[in-house]
């Protein structure tokens, strides 16, 4: 679904209100979009989404959908990186165990599309090591 800008604009214009999982799945079915989902707060679903560079939407915080961007490591601990559309450009990091517990409390829903995932993010030049180091 990467680079589906026209579909994204049409979707936002048509479905700009709140959503719930069954209605979202019905809309995706009607649009012919292949997806996978969970309603059980199963972290293995997010492990798979992370490993395949898909990310996922999920219910996070009371009555709010956010984007699970992936798992990140900081100081030997794994965190869920969440992007909230109310605060674009700022990732919320929550320790994995705490995240899974809270996510379950918010309903445990997550969904990702099954199309080819987006390309990996480019690295900043200072993050790339040359062969001399």
Which structural class do you get from the secondary structure elements? alpha+beta
What is the number of helices? 4
Radius of gyration: 16 Å
Strand order of the largest sheet: 1-6-2-3-4-5
How much helical structure, as a percent, in the residues?
25-40%
Protein architecture, described:
The protein is of the alpha+beta class and 133 residues long. The chain is 30% helix and 26% strand. The chain is built from four helices and six strands, in the order ααβαββββαβ. It has helices at residues 5-14, 21-31, 43-51, 96-105; strands at 35-38, 56-59, 65-74, 77-83, 91-95, 110-113. Strands 1-6-2-3-4-5 form a six-stranded antiparallel sheet. The model is unreliable at 125-133 (pLDDT under 50).
Blueprint of the fold:
Layout: H1 5-14, H2 21-31, E1 35-38, H3 43-51, E2 56-59, E3 65-74, E4 77-83, E5 91-95, H4 96-105, E6 110-113
Antiparallel strand pairs: 1-6, 2-3, 2-6, 3-4, 4-5
